[in-house]
Specification:
This protein is α/β, with parallel strands linked by helices. It contains 15 helices and 15 strands.
């Protein structure tokens, strides 16, 4: 006889029987169970759950839910993936041990294990759980049954490794793998897919799916560590005071992994709320540079040109931002036309690609700008390292910005940096700023301008 027990109560009971203590739970655990039961009933076929790390996501959405589903439907077919194949295999072992537990067998006596293999195990009814890491091969297996009722699912738990999610190449490879391999492993249009993860980047798998990357509509459950009401999501795990300290210590990490919004409201590396918007350039001597960041392609990438000035009292002014998508010929014409508009008093800095081709292009771009001060140089260091000196000026309130239609796009890019889809405007500003402090060692730039800006604020 199979007992009709919900996932939440099943999880409570099995926790006590397996570990000999009560499950310390919170309201979000029931919310997760409710969503997963809706998937089982066929009310949801595409589900994204965003939740902080170590908040019971794997225990509930992988281990308990798969075991609970197999208790009701012993022939269900599952595929479970994670960023690590060994982690997915460990989760699979935990499901297996749960099914073997005497308390589980008392509730679901009709679900029995048949055999196990390296990457999967089966039930006597023909159910299966197959595991793989993100990017791994899935050969000869599918999820779900060719029927209208529940027949299994694909469960993706943390597809990205946290310290690799900043890499465009690694992050996109996970999305490509989802599109080209995993998505095709469903046996029926009724087979649900569940993604449960902490947010790590604006364009991580969850972000890509929720923005319509597959053309499907996804149901979403977002569980920030600090709720909209300002309370701790799981006080027994982290109190509100503890969460605020975590936020202050690492705002960027906290925004993504704990608040499920992969950029702090006031920025991480940049604090754009510190920028004062002005309607007129202050009087006095100003040194101007137009820094450029050139798109590698015209398909999705932007070319950006930032006009940055330094006043005689040590402040900086973002006076203009040009940003457009186009090919090389239009790009070079824009650089020339904007130089004419800026005038010869605005110096120009253009990045130089490595290799002989980069040198040839830099020479061409310099020669097309006679009468102007033009510098070309390769980019050195990563984007974050290049941006930090200018960010230090922004963060102490030492940067002004002329009011313009481009303001919002720039401020949003600052808030998302370095985890946003684009960073062309930041790169252009970093280049312009770097020209103003040329010759100073990088660490010295950061410390010198931090001290100078603080002294400036103290004198006012």
């Amino acid at each position: 006889m199979t007992f009709d027990v919900g996932l939440y109560d099943f999880s409570r009971y099995l926790f006590m029987r397996r570990f000999g203590s009560k499950w310390v739970r919170s309201d979000h655990h029931r919310l997760i169970c409710d969503k997963l039961e809706a998937v089982f009933r066929g009310e949801i076929t595409r589900l994204v759950i965003n939740i902080p790390p170590r908040y019971s996501k794997t225990e509930l959405a992988v281990v308990n839910w798969i075991a609970w589903c197999l208790g009701h439907v012993p022939d269900a077919e599952f595929i479970h993936t994670s960023y690590s194949a060994s982690l997915a295999a460990n989760n699979s072992s935990n499901v297996l041990r749960l099914i073997e537990h005497e308390a589980y067998q008392a509730i679901f006596p009709n679900t029995r294990l048949d055999r196990t293999a390296r990457a999967h195990w089966t039930t006597t009814a023909g159910g299966v759980l197959y595991t793989a890491g993100s990017g791994g091969t899935i050969t000869g297996f599918g999820a779900g049954k060719q029927r209208s009722g529940f027949g299994g699912a694909i469960i993706i738990d943390d597809p990205h490794k946290a310290d690799e999610a900043r890499s465009d190449v690694v992050r996109k490879s996970v999305i490509d793998w989802y599109q080209n391999t995993l998505q095709s492993r469903i046996n029926s249009r009724h087979t649900p897919i569940i993604v449960i993860m902490q947010r790590l980047h604006e364009d991580d798998l969850a972000g890509w799916l929720l923005k319509g990357g597959t053309g499907e509509k996804w149901d979403s459950l977002v569980l920030p560590a600090i709720t909209a009401e300002g309370a701790a999501l799981w006080p027994d795990k982290h109190t509100l005071d503890e969460l605020r300290r975590m936020e202050q210590a690492a705002p960027y990490v906290f925004a993504g992994q704990y608040m499920q919004n992969p950029a702090p409201l006031d920025g991480g590396i940049f604090k754009p709320n510190q920028i004062e918007t002005i309607d007129a350039v202050p009087a006095g001597q100003i040194t101007w540079w137009r820094g450029w960041d050139l798109a590698a392609t015209q398909d999705g990438d932007w070319t950006a040109g930032a006009k940055l000035g330094k006043t005689s009292d040590g402040r900086f002014i973002i006076a203009d931002m040009f940003r457009e998508r186009f090919g090389p010929d239009e790009r070079d014409a824009a650089i020339k036309n904007i130089a004419s508009r800026d005038g010869a008093g605005v110096h120009i800095s253009i990045p130089q690609d490595p290799g002989q081709a980069g040198k040839t292009l830099a020479l061409y771009q310099t020669r097309m700008l006679p009468g102007y001060t033009v510098r070309t140089s390769p980019e050195t260091g990563d984007k974050v390292t290049r941006a930090e000196p200018f960010a230090s000026q922004v963060n102490v309130g030492n940067v002004l910005m002329m009011r313009g239609s481009w303001n919002d796009a720039l401020l949003n890019e600052m808030r998302m940096f370095p985890n946003g889809s684009h960073d062309d405007q930041i790169d252009a500003l970093s280049r312009a700023f770097g020209e103003m402090v040329e010759g100073m060692p990088h660490a010295g730039i950061f410390e010198f301008y931090r001290q100078e800006a603080e002294a400036s604020r103290a004198d006012q």
